[in-house]
Amino acid sequence: MQGFWRDTVEFFPILLNGVALTIIVTIGSLLLSTVLGLLWALMRVSGIGILSGISASVINVIRGIPIIVLLFYLYFVMPDLGVTLSALQAAILGLGIAYSAYQAENFRAGIEAIDKGQIEAAQSIGMGWWLTMRRVVLPQAVRIVLPPYGNVMIMMLKDSSQASTITVAELALQGKLIASSTFKNTSVFTLVALMYLTMSIPLILLVRHFEKRAGKR
Amino acid sequence: MIELTDVHKSFGKVEVLKGITASVEKGEVVCIVGPSGSGKSTILRCINGLESYDRGEISVEGLRVNRDAPSIVSIRTQVSMVFQRFNLFPHRTALENVVEGPLFVKQEPRAQALERGRALLAQVGLAEKADAHPPQLSGGQQQRVAIARALAMQPKAILFDEPTSALDPELVGDVLSVMRKLADDGMTMVVVTHEMGFARDVADRVLFIDGGVIVEQGPAKTVLNQPQHPRTQDFLRRVLHPL
């Protein structure tokens, strides 16, 4: 146990560098997946055949490819096609695209849960499609969508560790580097696990808060 | 003002409107009565383009109703609708519900829209409920907010789709008296209703619809007091003397 505390004091600052990258990757890909997911979802419910067809295909393609393969593709294959991305850019882009499919399905479920009467009421006062979405549907859908959105945030935090496979020195990769050079596997990976857990707990509490609020209505 | 000419409408294989021809003049109150499933609500929903129609023509102030054309927005701002289940926006206060259309569809100045919104809430007897959210209001209060929301568009006509059918009996009177006042003020109204007392006292004309056709129409008192057609007679007997 004493050894663990000594190791903690030694490794913690190095691992904190990893934490910073973990947070950057998570927030970056969360924002990207939210924007893309909303775009897919709006295309899907647009009522325009071509748009909803494209959206459905994109979602299925993304869902059918493992995140790690998507990351490899962006980082190792894109340079051959003339697009060179830094490891961090590729990580954010890959995770953002991968999760946009789940976000889209979540958003769509929220949008479709809104009572048809709401849409008719909006139409009956002359609102067009976009105004109806912006003023009537989306504000109500947000409340339905928030609890699952919080769960996606937790999953993305953990899946940001997959960026380690394309050399982003986030928390998991920092841990692996220290462990392989010091052989202190137990101390290092216990520390890494505790640090992920520490970052997850606020998100878990946030989800619980969202769920309670949604349950009140 | 509103003209329907030989309007047909099917849902899948079921033909719900089988050639409706009718008109509503400015300032007129027309009640549409008839059994459930006869197509009453569908007529209203076709007039403001919530539903498409297959054949025939509907026009409002000479403008053809086509729900896929941009002109539908102008028709909807001229012909407001009040729904059976109110359909207020639950995430906005009563006042916000009322000013939503003026602010975001008609782009009215905020101060002006709010002032008129408050006046309209006062007109339907809910001045003190301006900041309440719909779930905090009774059904009758929600429906009166919905009427204020329809009026806020300064429409030329209002369509009422069974406005009191979802209300507890003791709340029906409040809503009907607001509607009666509107009629007295000269508002053009088309009302689908089961309230025969309201139809008799307030309507200028009554259309009796059954099986997707207009079976009988005429001045309210004539149709409701001396119905000519056996189906009208039978319907009114059942509605007025359910036991």
What is the beta-strand fraction of chain A? under 5%
Query: Order of strands side by side in the largest beta sheet of chain B?
Result: 6-7-8-3-9-10
Query: What string, H for helix and E for strand, traces the elements of chain A in order?
Result: HHHHHHHH
Query: How far is it from the N-terminal to the C-terminal residue of chain A, by CA?
Result: 49 Å
**Number of helical regions of chain B:** 9
Number of strands of chain A: 0
Beta-strand content bin of chain B = 25-35%
Determine the oligomeric state from the structure.
heterodimer
Q: Gyration radius of chain B, to the nearest Å?
A: 18 Å
Largest contact between chains: A-B, 17 and 24 residues
Helix content of chain B: 25-40%
Structural class of chain A: mainly alpha
Radius of gyration of chain A: 21 Å
Structural class of chain B: alpha/beta
What's the helix count of chain A? 8
Order of helices and strands of chain B: EEEHEEHEHHHEHEHEEHH
Overall shape of chain B: it is globular
Query: For the residues shown, what is the average pLDDT of chain A?
Result: 92
